[in-house]
Amino acid sequence: MRSGVRTRASFWVFALAVLAFIYVPLGVVAINSFNSDRTFGWPPPGLTTRWWSAALKAPGPRDALRTSVEAGLGATAIALVLASLLALALTRYRFFGRNAISLLVILPIALPGIVTGIALQSVIQNVLNPVFGINAGLFTIIVGHATFCIVVVFNNVTARLRRMGGSLESASADLGARPLTTFRLVTFPLLRTAILAGALLAFALSFDEIVVTTFTAGPGTPTLPIWIFNNLFRPNQAPVVNVVAVILVAVSILPVWLALRLSGTEAAESRL
Amino acid sequence: MGSKKALVGLLTPPMLWLVVAYLGALAAIFATAFFTTDPFTNEVVRTFTTENFKALLSPTYLRIIGRTLFIAVMVTVLCIVIAVPFAYFMARVAPRRLRHLLVAAVLVPLWASYLVKAYAWRTMVQPGGVLDSTFGTTPGYGFAAVVLTLTYLWLPYMILPVYAGFERLPESHLEASADLGAKGLHTFRRVILPALLPAIAAGTVFTFSLSLGDYIAVQIVGGTLQVLGTTVLQNITLDLPFAAALGTTSVVIMVFYLVAVGRTGALDNL
User: Fold this and answer.
1) Which residues, numbered 62 to 91 in chain B, qualify as contacts with chain A under a Cβ-Cβ cut-off of 8 Å?
2) Is residue A1 in some structural domain?
3) A218 — phi, psi (to 5°)?
4) Distance from CA of B60 to the nearest CA of A (A)
5) A239 chain-B contacts, CB cut-off 8 A
6) Which of A207, B16, B118, B187 makes the best surface tag, with the fewest CB within 10 Å?
7) What is the Cα–Cα distance from A140 to B76, expressed in whole angstroms?
8) Does B18 sit within 8 Å of A248, measured CB to CB?
Protein backbone atom coordinates (compact mmCIF):
# COMPACT_ATOMS: atom_id res chain seq x y z
CA MET A 1 0.00 0.00 0.00
CA ARG A 2 1.60 3.26 -1.07
CA SER A 3 0.51 5.88 1.36
CA GLY A 4 0.65 9.60 0.99
CA VAL A 5 2.77 11.92 3.09
CA ARG A 6 -0.20 12.91 5.20
CA THR A 7 -1.17 9.31 5.96
CA ARG A 8 2.40 8.54 6.97
CA ALA A 9 2.54 11.62 9.15
CA SER A 10 -0.65 10.67 10.93
CA PHE A 11 0.75 7.18 11.57
CA TRP A 12 3.83 8.77 13.14
CA VAL A 13 1.69 11.00 15.35
CA PHE A 14 -0.45 8.05 16.40
CA ALA A 15 2.58 5.86 17.14
CA LEU A 16 4.23 8.56 19.24
CA ALA A 17 0.97 8.96 21.16
CA VAL A 18 0.86 5.20 21.87
CA LEU A 19 4.50 5.21 23.00
CA ALA A 20 3.67 8.14 25.28
CA PHE A 21 0.66 6.21 26.62
CA ILE A 22 2.97 3.27 27.37
CA TYR A 23 5.84 5.18 28.97
CA VAL A 24 4.35 8.28 30.61
CA PRO A 25 2.74 6.41 33.56
CA LEU A 26 6.02 4.64 34.34
CA GLY A 27 7.86 7.94 34.07
CA VAL A 28 5.36 9.54 36.45
CA VAL A 29 6.10 6.89 39.10
CA ALA A 30 9.83 7.52 38.68
CA ILE A 31 9.40 11.30 39.02
CA ASN A 32 7.00 10.88 41.94
CA SER A 33 9.67 9.01 43.86
CA PHE A 34 11.39 12.43 44.04
CA ASN A 35 8.16 14.42 44.53
CA SER A 36 8.40 16.52 47.70
CA ASP A 37 4.59 16.51 48.07
CA ARG A 38 3.44 13.64 50.29
CA THR A 39 0.21 13.15 48.32
CA PHE A 40 1.89 13.46 44.89
CA GLY A 41 0.18 16.60 43.69
CA TRP A 42 1.00 17.11 40.02
CA PRO A 43 3.12 18.85 38.85
CA PRO A 44 5.51 18.25 41.77
CA PRO A 45 5.98 21.40 43.86
CA GLY A 46 9.60 20.41 44.47
CA LEU A 47 12.05 17.52 44.22
CA THR A 48 13.69 15.67 47.07
CA THR A 49 15.79 12.55 47.64
CA ARG A 50 14.29 12.14 51.13
CA TRP A 51 12.08 9.19 50.15
CA TRP A 52 14.96 7.35 48.56
CA SER A 53 17.10 7.54 51.67
CA ALA A 54 14.06 6.68 53.83
CA ALA A 55 13.27 3.66 51.66
CA LEU A 56 16.83 2.40 51.64
CA LYS A 57 16.92 2.57 55.45
CA ALA A 58 13.47 1.04 56.07
CA PRO A 59 13.66 -2.61 57.19
CA GLY A 60 10.32 -3.64 55.59
CA PRO A 61 11.30 -3.24 51.93
CA ARG A 62 14.79 -4.60 52.56
CA ASP A 63 13.49 -7.84 54.11
CA ALA A 64 10.93 -8.10 51.34
CA LEU A 65 13.64 -7.63 48.73
CA ARG A 66 15.63 -10.49 50.26
CA THR A 67 12.56 -12.76 50.25
CA SER A 68 11.89 -11.86 46.62
CA VAL A 69 15.46 -12.60 45.54
CA GLU A 70 15.54 -15.90 47.45
CA ALA A 71 12.16 -16.96 46.06
CA GLY A 72 13.23 -15.95 42.54
CA LEU A 73 16.48 -17.90 42.73
CA GLY A 74 14.82 -20.99 44.22
CA ALA A 75 11.93 -21.01 41.74
CA THR A 76 14.27 -20.38 38.80
CA ALA A 77 16.56 -23.24 39.81
CA ILE A 78 13.66 -25.72 40.03
CA ALA A 79 12.03 -24.46 36.84
CA LEU A 80 15.34 -24.67 34.98
CA VAL A 81 15.81 -28.36 35.70
CA LEU A 82 12.20 -29.44 35.22
CA ALA A 83 11.63 -27.37 32.08
CA SER A 84 14.85 -28.47 30.36
CA LEU A 85 14.03 -32.14 30.98
CA LEU A 86 10.51 -31.60 29.70
CA ALA A 87 11.65 -29.69 26.61
CA LEU A 88 14.12 -32.46 25.71
CA ALA A 89 11.46 -35.13 26.16
CA LEU A 90 8.84 -33.29 24.12
CA THR A 91 11.02 -32.23 21.18
CA ARG A 92 13.19 -35.35 20.82
CA TYR A 93 10.56 -38.07 21.37
CA ARG A 94 7.15 -38.88 19.97
CA PHE A 95 4.83 -40.53 22.44
CA PHE A 96 1.22 -40.77 23.51
CA GLY A 97 -0.02 -37.77 25.52
CA ARG A 98 2.63 -35.39 24.18
CA ASN A 99 0.11 -32.68 23.29
CA ALA A 100 -1.63 -33.02 26.63
CA ILE A 101 1.68 -32.38 28.38
CA SER A 102 2.46 -29.26 26.37
CA LEU A 103 -0.99 -27.99 27.33
CA LEU A 104 -0.37 -28.83 30.99
CA VAL A 105 2.80 -26.70 30.95
CA ILE A 106 0.96 -23.54 29.85
CA LEU A 107 -1.95 -24.09 32.22
CA PRO A 108 -0.35 -22.43 35.31
CA ILE A 109 0.16 -19.19 33.38
CA ALA A 110 -3.07 -19.41 31.35
CA LEU A 111 -5.54 -19.95 34.19
CA PRO A 112 -6.43 -16.95 36.34
CA GLY A 113 -3.79 -16.59 39.06
CA ILE A 114 -6.45 -16.48 41.74
CA VAL A 115 -7.60 -20.02 40.86
CA THR A 116 -4.04 -21.38 41.03
CA GLY A 117 -3.62 -19.35 44.21
CA ILE A 118 -6.58 -20.74 46.13
CA ALA A 119 -5.77 -24.24 44.89
CA LEU A 120 -2.25 -24.05 46.31
CA GLN A 121 -3.49 -22.35 49.46
CA SER A 122 -5.87 -25.19 50.24
CA VAL A 123 -3.09 -27.72 49.64
CA ILE A 124 -0.95 -25.86 52.18
CA GLN A 125 -3.81 -25.75 54.68
CA ASN A 126 -5.07 -29.30 54.18
CA VAL A 127 -1.97 -31.31 53.29
CA LEU A 128 1.37 -29.58 53.81
CA ASN A 129 0.59 -28.13 57.21
CA PRO A 130 -1.23 -31.04 58.94
CA VAL A 131 0.76 -33.86 57.34
CA PHE A 132 4.27 -32.42 56.91
CA GLY A 133 4.16 -29.50 59.35
CA ILE A 134 5.13 -27.05 56.61
CA ASN A 135 3.73 -23.52 57.03
CA ALA A 136 3.18 -20.94 54.35
CA GLY A 137 6.50 -19.18 53.86
CA LEU A 138 9.51 -19.04 51.58
CA PHE A 139 9.25 -22.74 50.70
CA THR A 140 5.63 -22.55 49.58
CA ILE A 141 6.33 -19.34 47.62
CA ILE A 142 9.10 -21.16 45.76
CA VAL A 143 6.84 -24.14 44.97
CA GLY A 144 4.12 -21.85 43.60
CA HIS A 145 6.52 -19.72 41.56
CA ALA A 146 8.39 -22.70 40.12
CA THR A 147 5.09 -24.06 38.81
CA PHE A 148 4.40 -21.05 36.58
CA CYS A 149 8.09 -20.32 35.81
CA ILE A 150 8.45 -23.69 34.07
CA VAL A 151 6.64 -22.40 31.00
CA VAL A 152 9.09 -19.57 30.14
CA VAL A 153 12.17 -21.77 30.39
CA PHE A 154 10.32 -24.52 28.51
CA ASN A 155 9.38 -22.15 25.65
CA ASN A 156 12.93 -20.87 25.31
CA VAL A 157 14.59 -24.27 25.36
CA THR A 158 11.98 -25.81 23.04
CA ALA A 159 12.41 -23.02 20.49
CA ARG A 160 16.17 -23.54 20.49
CA LEU A 161 15.90 -27.34 20.23
CA ARG A 162 13.55 -27.03 17.26
CA ARG A 163 15.88 -24.63 15.48
CA MET A 164 18.91 -26.86 16.16
CA GLY A 165 17.29 -29.91 14.66
CA GLY A 166 18.61 -33.37 15.53
CA SER A 167 21.41 -33.75 13.00
CA LEU A 168 24.27 -32.67 15.25
CA GLU A 169 23.15 -35.08 17.94
CA SER A 170 22.83 -37.89 15.38
CA ALA A 171 26.32 -37.12 14.11
CA SER A 172 27.65 -37.31 17.64
CA ALA A 173 25.92 -40.66 18.17
CA ASP A 174 27.26 -41.96 14.84
CA LEU A 175 30.76 -41.06 15.95
CA GLY A 176 30.24 -43.30 18.93
CA ALA A 177 29.31 -40.90 21.72
CA ARG A 178 26.95 -42.19 24.38
CA PRO A 179 23.75 -40.19 25.05
CA LEU A 180 25.18 -38.51 28.15
CA THR A 181 28.40 -37.58 26.34
CA THR A 182 26.38 -36.19 23.45
CA PHE A 183 24.36 -34.13 25.90
CA ARG A 184 27.46 -32.83 27.67
CA LEU A 185 29.50 -32.00 24.58
CA VAL A 186 26.88 -31.19 21.93
CA THR A 187 23.35 -30.52 23.15
CA PHE A 188 24.08 -28.58 26.33
CA PRO A 189 26.64 -26.13 24.86
CA LEU A 190 24.16 -25.29 22.09
CA LEU A 191 21.33 -24.85 24.60
CA ARG A 192 23.32 -22.78 27.08
CA THR A 193 22.25 -19.29 26.01
CA ALA A 194 18.61 -20.37 25.63
CA ILE A 195 18.65 -21.84 29.14
CA LEU A 196 20.27 -18.71 30.52
CA ALA A 197 17.74 -16.45 28.78
CA GLY A 198 14.93 -18.63 30.12
CA ALA A 199 16.38 -18.44 33.61
CA LEU A 200 16.60 -14.65 33.49
CA LEU A 201 13.00 -14.39 32.34
CA ALA A 202 11.81 -16.91 34.92
CA PHE A 203 13.51 -14.82 37.59
CA ALA A 204 11.84 -11.67 36.27
CA LEU A 205 8.46 -13.39 36.26
CA SER A 206 8.87 -14.65 39.81
CA PHE A 207 10.19 -11.31 41.05
CA ASP A 208 7.09 -9.54 39.82
CA GLU A 209 4.39 -12.09 40.69
CA ILE A 210 1.74 -11.06 43.16
CA VAL A 211 -1.47 -13.09 42.77
CA VAL A 212 -0.24 -16.63 43.46
CA THR A 213 2.17 -15.21 46.03
CA THR A 214 -0.71 -13.66 47.99
CA PHE A 215 -1.99 -17.16 48.69
CA THR A 216 1.30 -18.99 49.22
CA ALA A 217 3.28 -16.45 51.28
CA GLY A 218 2.72 -16.55 55.01
CA PRO A 219 2.11 -13.32 56.92
CA GLY A 220 5.78 -13.19 57.94
CA THR A 221 7.37 -13.45 54.50
CA PRO A 222 6.09 -10.77 52.14
CA THR A 223 7.84 -10.47 48.77
CA LEU A 224 8.49 -7.02 47.33
CA PRO A 225 5.21 -6.87 45.33
CA ILE A 226 3.26 -8.05 48.38
CA TRP A 227 4.95 -5.42 50.51
CA ILE A 228 4.00 -2.73 48.00
CA PHE A 229 0.42 -3.95 47.82
CA ASN A 230 0.09 -4.07 51.62
CA ASN A 231 1.35 -0.50 51.92
CA LEU A 232 -0.37 0.92 48.86
CA PHE A 233 -3.38 2.17 50.73
CA ARG A 234 -1.46 3.59 53.70
CA PRO A 235 -0.98 7.31 53.05
CA ASN A 236 2.08 7.71 55.27
CA GLN A 237 3.92 4.90 53.45
CA ALA A 238 3.08 6.25 49.97
CA PRO A 239 6.40 8.02 49.27
CA VAL A 240 8.40 4.90 50.15
CA VAL A 241 6.05 2.78 48.00
CA ASN A 242 7.01 4.92 45.01
CA VAL A 243 10.71 4.32 45.55
CA VAL A 244 10.20 0.56 45.95
CA ALA A 245 8.06 0.60 42.78
CA VAL A 246 10.90 2.17 40.81
CA ILE A 247 13.32 -0.44 42.14
CA LEU A 248 10.86 -3.21 41.23
CA VAL A 249 10.58 -2.01 37.62
CA ALA A 250 14.35 -1.66 37.32
CA VAL A 251 15.02 -5.15 38.68
CA SER A 252 12.33 -6.78 36.53
CA ILE A 253 13.48 -5.08 33.33
CA LEU A 254 17.20 -5.73 33.71
CA PRO A 255 16.95 -9.52 33.19
CA VAL A 256 14.74 -8.91 30.14
CA TRP A 257 17.37 -6.68 28.55
CA LEU A 258 19.99 -9.33 29.17
CA ALA A 259 17.73 -12.05 27.73
CA LEU A 260 17.10 -9.91 24.64
CA ARG A 261 20.84 -9.65 24.08
CA LEU A 262 21.39 -13.35 24.67
CA SER A 263 18.63 -14.87 22.65
CA GLY A 264 16.91 -12.19 20.59
CA THR A 265 13.35 -10.92 20.83
CA GLU A 266 11.85 -14.41 20.57
CA ALA A 267 13.10 -15.12 24.08
CA ALA A 268 11.30 -12.18 25.61
CA GLU A 269 8.15 -13.07 23.70
CA SER A 270 7.99 -16.35 25.60
CA ARG A 271 5.67 -14.62 28.06
CA LEU A 272 3.00 -14.63 25.36
CA MET B 1 17.01 -41.30 19.05
CA GLY B 2 16.99 -42.26 22.69
CA SER B 3 15.64 -45.26 24.49
CA LYS B 4 12.36 -45.59 26.32
CA LYS B 5 14.29 -45.58 29.56
CA ALA B 6 15.79 -42.19 28.79
CA LEU B 7 12.35 -40.78 28.01
CA VAL B 8 10.97 -42.01 31.32
CA GLY B 9 13.94 -40.47 33.08
CA LEU B 10 13.38 -37.14 31.37
CA LEU B 11 9.64 -37.07 31.97
CA THR B 12 9.32 -38.35 35.51
CA PRO B 13 10.56 -35.34 37.54
CA PRO B 14 8.63 -32.62 35.68
CA MET B 15 5.48 -34.74 35.47
CA LEU B 16 5.61 -35.53 39.18
CA TRP B 17 5.82 -31.82 39.87
CA LEU B 18 3.12 -30.68 37.46
CA VAL B 19 0.68 -33.47 38.17
CA VAL B 20 1.11 -33.75 41.94
CA ALA B 21 1.83 -30.14 42.94
CA TYR B 22 -0.35 -28.48 40.37
CA LEU B 23 -2.98 -30.66 38.76
CA GLY B 24 -3.83 -32.32 42.08
CA ALA B 25 -4.34 -28.95 43.75
CA LEU B 26 -6.44 -27.76 40.84
CA ALA B 27 -8.64 -30.84 40.83
CA ALA B 28 -9.18 -30.48 44.57
CA ILE B 29 -10.32 -26.88 44.24
CA PHE B 30 -12.74 -27.74 41.41
CA ALA B 31 -14.15 -30.51 43.56
CA THR B 32 -14.53 -28.04 46.43
CA ALA B 33 -16.89 -26.01 44.26
CA PHE B 34 -19.40 -28.85 44.74
CA PHE B 35 -19.03 -28.90 48.53
CA THR B 36 -20.69 -26.67 51.05
CA THR B 37 -19.78 -24.67 54.15
CA ASP B 38 -21.01 -25.19 57.68
CA PRO B 39 -22.63 -21.83 58.52
CA PHE B 40 -21.45 -21.91 62.16
CA THR B 41 -17.85 -23.10 61.92
CA ASN B 42 -17.09 -22.00 58.32
CA GLU B 43 -15.58 -25.44 57.82
CA VAL B 44 -15.91 -27.07 54.42
CA VAL B 45 -18.45 -29.91 54.51
CA ARG B 46 -17.76 -32.62 51.96
CA THR B 47 -21.20 -33.46 50.67
CA PHE B 48 -22.00 -33.14 46.98
CA THR B 49 -24.21 -30.18 46.08
CA THR B 50 -24.78 -27.84 43.15
CA GLU B 51 -26.07 -25.09 45.45
CA ASN B 52 -23.00 -22.91 44.84
CA PHE B 53 -23.65 -22.78 41.11
CA LYS B 54 -27.36 -22.14 41.68
CA ALA B 55 -26.44 -19.19 43.91
CA LEU B 56 -24.44 -17.76 41.02
CA LEU B 57 -27.68 -17.34 39.09
CA SER B 58 -29.00 -14.74 41.53
CA PRO B 59 -29.32 -11.20 40.13
CA THR B 60 -26.41 -9.92 42.24
CA TYR B 61 -23.92 -12.40 40.83
CA LEU B 62 -25.31 -12.35 37.30
CA ARG B 63 -24.75 -8.59 37.35
CA ILE B 64 -21.16 -9.06 38.55
CA ILE B 65 -20.48 -11.71 35.89
CA GLY B 66 -22.04 -9.47 33.24
CA ARG B 67 -19.96 -6.50 34.37
CA THR B 68 -16.77 -8.56 34.29
CA LEU B 69 -17.56 -9.78 30.77
CA PHE B 70 -18.35 -6.22 29.68
CA ILE B 71 -15.03 -4.96 31.03
CA ALA B 72 -13.18 -7.80 29.28
CA VAL B 73 -14.90 -7.00 25.97
CA MET B 74 -14.27 -3.24 26.27
CA VAL B 75 -10.60 -3.80 27.09
CA THR B 76 -10.25 -6.22 24.19
CA VAL B 77 -11.85 -3.81 21.71
CA LEU B 78 -9.70 -0.90 22.92
CA CYS B 79 -6.56 -3.02 22.64
CA ILE B 80 -7.46 -3.97 19.05
CA VAL B 81 -8.19 -0.36 18.10
CA ILE B 82 -4.83 0.80 19.45
CA ALA B 83 -2.72 -2.22 18.48
CA VAL B 84 -3.68 -2.64 14.81
CA PRO B 85 -2.57 0.80 13.58
CA PHE B 86 0.43 0.77 15.90
CA ALA B 87 1.56 -2.67 14.70
CA TYR B 88 1.04 -1.50 11.11
CA PHE B 89 3.27 1.45 11.87
CA MET B 90 5.92 -0.87 13.35
CA ALA B 91 5.89 -3.27 10.42
CA ARG B 92 5.31 -1.00 7.43
CA VAL B 93 5.71 2.70 8.13
CA ALA B 94 8.68 2.98 10.50
CA PRO B 95 12.13 2.73 8.92
CA ARG B 96 13.53 -0.80 9.00
CA ARG B 97 16.34 0.05 11.41
CA LEU B 98 13.84 1.30 13.99
CA ARG B 99 11.88 -1.97 14.04
CA HIS B 100 14.03 -3.82 16.55
CA LEU B 101 13.97 -0.80 18.81
CA LEU B 102 10.18 -0.60 18.56
CA VAL B 103 9.76 -4.30 19.36
CA ALA B 104 11.99 -3.82 22.39
CA ALA B 105 9.97 -0.74 23.35
CA VAL B 106 6.85 -2.92 23.48
CA LEU B 107 8.55 -5.92 25.10
CA VAL B 108 10.05 -4.03 28.01
CA PRO B 109 6.73 -2.81 29.47
CA LEU B 110 5.38 -6.36 28.97
CA TRP B 111 7.87 -7.45 31.63
CA ALA B 112 7.87 -4.30 33.77
CA SER B 113 6.16 -5.00 37.06
CA TYR B 114 2.42 -5.59 36.71
CA LEU B 115 1.81 -4.14 40.15
CA VAL B 116 3.74 -0.96 39.46
CA LYS B 117 1.90 -0.43 36.18
CA ALA B 118 -1.46 -0.68 37.96
CA TYR B 119 -0.13 1.56 40.71
CA ALA B 120 1.10 4.06 38.11
CA TRP B 121 -2.47 4.45 36.89
CA ARG B 122 -3.64 5.04 40.42
CA THR B 123 -1.36 8.07 40.56
CA MET B 124 -2.51 9.06 37.06
CA VAL B 125 -6.23 9.11 37.85
CA GLN B 126 -6.11 10.20 41.49
CA PRO B 127 -7.71 13.57 42.29
CA GLY B 128 -5.03 16.21 41.81
CA GLY B 129 -2.97 13.66 39.85
CA VAL B 130 -1.51 13.86 36.37
CA LEU B 131 -4.75 13.57 34.36
CA ASP B 132 -6.54 16.00 36.64
CA SER B 133 -3.90 18.73 36.42
CA THR B 134 -3.12 18.20 32.71
CA PHE B 135 -6.61 17.81 31.26
CA GLY B 136 -8.60 19.41 34.07
CA THR B 137 -10.59 16.22 34.58
CA THR B 138 -10.09 12.64 35.73
CA PRO B 139 -12.33 9.59 35.64
CA GLY B 140 -11.43 8.94 39.28
CA TYR B 141 -11.40 5.45 40.76
CA GLY B 142 -14.04 3.16 39.26
CA PHE B 143 -15.21 1.48 36.07
CA ALA B 144 -13.50 3.82 33.57
CA ALA B 145 -10.20 3.70 35.43
CA VAL B 146 -10.35 -0.12 35.49
CA VAL B 147 -10.94 -0.32 31.72
CA LEU B 148 -8.15 2.17 31.09
CA THR B 149 -5.68 0.41 33.37
CA LEU B 150 -6.42 -3.06 32.03
CA THR B 151 -6.09 -1.78 28.45
CA TYR B 152 -2.71 -0.37 29.40
CA LEU B 153 -1.64 -3.59 31.10
CA TRP B 154 -2.57 -5.98 28.29
CA LEU B 155 -1.79 -3.79 25.26
CA PRO B 156 1.62 -5.42 24.54
CA TYR B 157 -0.10 -8.84 24.46
CA MET B 158 -2.14 -7.56 21.51
CA ILE B 159 0.55 -5.52 19.73
CA LEU B 160 3.09 -8.36 19.47
CA PRO B 161 0.93 -11.02 17.75
CA VAL B 162 -0.60 -8.41 15.42
CA TYR B 163 2.87 -7.13 14.55
CA ALA B 164 3.94 -10.69 13.75
CA GLY B 165 0.80 -10.97 11.58
CA PHE B 166 1.78 -7.86 9.60
CA GLU B 167 5.31 -9.20 9.18
CA ARG B 168 3.90 -12.40 7.66
CA LEU B 169 1.67 -10.50 5.24
CA PRO B 170 3.47 -10.35 1.86
CA GLU B 171 4.06 -6.85 0.49
CA SER B 172 3.03 -8.17 -2.93
CA HIS B 173 -0.59 -8.64 -1.80
CA LEU B 174 -0.79 -4.97 -0.89
CA GLU B 175 0.79 -3.95 -4.17
CA ALA B 176 -1.58 -6.16 -6.14
CA SER B 177 -4.52 -4.59 -4.36
CA ALA B 178 -3.22 -1.10 -5.12
CA ASP B 179 -2.53 -2.01 -8.77
CA LEU B 180 -6.10 -3.20 -9.08
CA GLY B 181 -7.18 0.25 -8.05
CA ALA B 182 -8.12 -0.24 -4.39
CA LYS B 183 -7.77 2.77 -2.13
CA GLY B 184 -6.06 2.53 1.27
CA LEU B 185 -9.14 1.81 3.36
CA HIS B 186 -10.50 -0.64 0.83
CA THR B 187 -7.24 -2.60 0.85
CA PHE B 188 -7.32 -2.55 4.63
CA ARG B 189 -10.82 -4.01 4.73
CA ARG B 190 -10.51 -6.58 1.97
CA VAL B 191 -6.85 -7.67 2.15
CA ILE B 192 -5.20 -6.74 5.44
CA LEU B 193 -7.99 -7.43 7.91
CA PRO B 194 -8.84 -10.97 6.71
CA ALA B 195 -5.16 -11.96 6.73
CA LEU B 196 -4.73 -10.43 10.16
CA LEU B 197 -7.77 -11.94 11.82
CA PRO B 198 -5.99 -14.99 13.29
CA ALA B 199 -3.31 -12.76 14.84
CA ILE B 200 -5.95 -10.47 16.35
CA ALA B 201 -7.87 -13.46 17.65
CA ALA B 202 -4.69 -14.75 19.28
CA GLY B 203 -4.21 -11.36 20.96
CA THR B 204 -7.78 -11.33 22.26
CA VAL B 205 -7.13 -14.62 24.06
CA PHE B 206 -4.73 -12.72 26.30
CA THR B 207 -6.63 -9.46 26.67
CA PHE B 208 -9.95 -11.21 27.29
CA SER B 209 -8.83 -13.90 29.71
CA LEU B 210 -6.40 -11.70 31.61
CA SER B 211 -9.15 -9.09 32.11
CA LEU B 212 -11.57 -11.79 33.20
CA GLY B 213 -9.33 -13.04 36.01
CA ASP B 214 -7.92 -9.75 37.22
CA TYR B 215 -8.63 -8.47 40.70
CA ILE B 216 -5.48 -6.64 41.80
CA ALA B 217 -5.75 -3.77 39.33
CA VAL B 218 -9.47 -3.60 40.09
CA GLN B 219 -8.69 -3.14 43.78
CA ILE B 220 -6.04 -0.51 43.04
CA VAL B 221 -7.97 1.74 40.63
CA GLY B 222 -11.55 0.43 40.84
CA GLY B 223 -12.67 1.95 44.11
CA THR B 224 -15.54 -0.25 45.29
CA LEU B 225 -16.17 -1.85 41.89
CA GLN B 226 -17.05 -5.56 42.14
CA VAL B 227 -15.90 -8.06 39.52
CA LEU B 228 -15.57 -11.86 39.48
CA GLY B 229 -12.02 -11.75 40.83
CA THR B 230 -12.82 -9.53 43.80
CA THR B 231 -15.84 -11.65 44.78
CA VAL B 232 -13.65 -14.77 44.74
CA LEU B 233 -11.27 -12.99 47.08
CA GLN B 234 -14.02 -11.94 49.50
CA ASN B 235 -15.40 -15.45 49.79
CA ILE B 236 -12.17 -17.38 50.28
CA THR B 237 -11.98 -17.30 54.06
CA LEU B 238 -15.66 -17.58 54.89
CA ASP B 239 -17.01 -19.74 52.08
CA LEU B 240 -14.27 -21.50 50.13
CA PRO B 241 -16.67 -23.71 48.12
CA PHE B 242 -18.52 -20.65 46.83
CA ALA B 243 -15.21 -18.92 46.01
CA ALA B 244 -14.19 -22.08 44.15
CA ALA B 245 -17.47 -22.02 42.22
CA LEU B 246 -16.86 -18.38 41.24
CA GLY B 247 -13.30 -19.23 40.17
CA THR B 248 -14.55 -22.23 38.21
CA THR B 249 -17.02 -19.95 36.43
CA SER B 250 -14.24 -17.72 35.13
CA VAL B 251 -12.28 -20.77 34.00
CA VAL B 252 -15.36 -22.15 32.20
CA ILE B 253 -15.95 -18.83 30.42
CA MET B 254 -12.29 -18.81 29.36
CA VAL B 255 -12.47 -22.36 28.04
CA PHE B 256 -15.57 -21.49 25.99
CA TYR B 257 -13.77 -18.47 24.60
CA LEU B 258 -10.65 -20.52 23.79
CA VAL B 259 -12.72 -23.13 21.96
CA ALA B 260 -14.51 -20.42 19.98
CA VAL B 261 -11.23 -18.74 19.03
CA GLY B 262 -9.61 -22.11 18.32
CA ARG B 263 -12.11 -22.60 15.51
CA THR B 264 -10.71 -19.55 13.70
CA GLY B 265 -7.32 -21.28 13.63
CA ALA B 266 -5.76 -18.50 15.69
CA LEU B 267 -4.22 -20.78 18.27
CA ASP B 268 -2.00 -22.47 15.69
CA ASN B 269 0.12 -19.33 15.77
CA LEU B 270 0.86 -19.44 19.47
Assistant:
1) 82, 85-86, 88-90
2) no
3) -75, 175
4) 21
5) none
6) B16
7) 34
8) no
Answer whether residue A135 is part of any domain: yes
| Residue B196 backbone zone (phi > 0: left; psi -120 to 50: alpha; other: beta) | alpha
Domain for residue B39, yes or no?
Answer: no
The residue segments making up the domain with residue B175 are: 58-269
Does residue B218 sit within a domain? yes
Name the nearest CA neighbour of A152 among A94, A97, A209.
Answer: A209
Residue B62 domain flag: yes
Shortest distance between the Cα of B42 and any Cα of chain A, in A, equals 14
Is residue B136 within 8 A of residue B197, CB to CB? The reply is: no
Q: CA of A194: how far to CAs of A107, A145, A158, A163, in Å?
A: 22, 20, 9, 11
Q: Which residue of A has its CA nearest to B232?
A: A114
* DSSP letters spanning B31-62: HHTTSEE-TTT-PEE-----HHHHHTTSHHHH
Q: Is B110 on the interface with A (CB under 8 A)?
A: yes
Q: Do B22 and A107 touch (CB under 8 A)?
A: yes
Q: What is the residue range of A180's domain? A: 60-271
CB B164 within 8 A of CB B195: no
Each residue's pLDDT tens digit, A102-157:
878 888 887 888 888 888 888 888 777 778 877 778 888 999 999 989 988 998 89
Q: Is residue A4 part of a domain?
A: no
Residue B15 near residue B4, CB atoms below 8 Å = no
Residues A38 and A239: their CA atoms lie apart, in Å, by 6
Q: How many domains does chain A divide into?
A: 1
Using an 8 Å CB-CB cutoff, list chain B residues near A271: 110-111
Q: Which of residues 144-163 of B touch A (CB under 8 A)?
A: 152, 155, 157, 160-161
Inside any domain, residue A262: yes
| B211, B72 Cβ separation under 8 angstroms | yes
- Write out chain A residues lying below 8 Å of B243, CB-based: 118
Radius of gyration of chain A, Cα coordinates, nearest whole angstrom:
23
- Would you call B116 and A228 a contact, using CB atoms and an 8 Å cutoff? yes
Q: Which residues of B touch A211 (CB under 8 A)?
A: 215-216
pLDDT at position A1: 46
Residue B112: left (phi > 0), alpha (psi -120 to 50), or beta?
beta
CATH classification of the domain holding B208: 1.10.3720.10
pLDDT tens profile B27-61? 888 888 888 877 777 777 777 888 888 888 889 89
Distance CA A222, CA A61 (A): 9
| Mutation for A interface: B12, B103, B110, B123, most A CBs within 10 A | B123
Collapsed DSSP state (helix, strand, coil) of residue A35: strand
**A92 with B121: Cβ contact below 8 A:** no
Q: What is the CATH number for A222?
A: 1.10.3720.10
Residue numbers in chain A where pLDDT is lower than 50: 1
Q: For chain B, what is the domain count?
A: 1
State ipTM.
0.83
Residue of A nearest to B235 (CA): A118
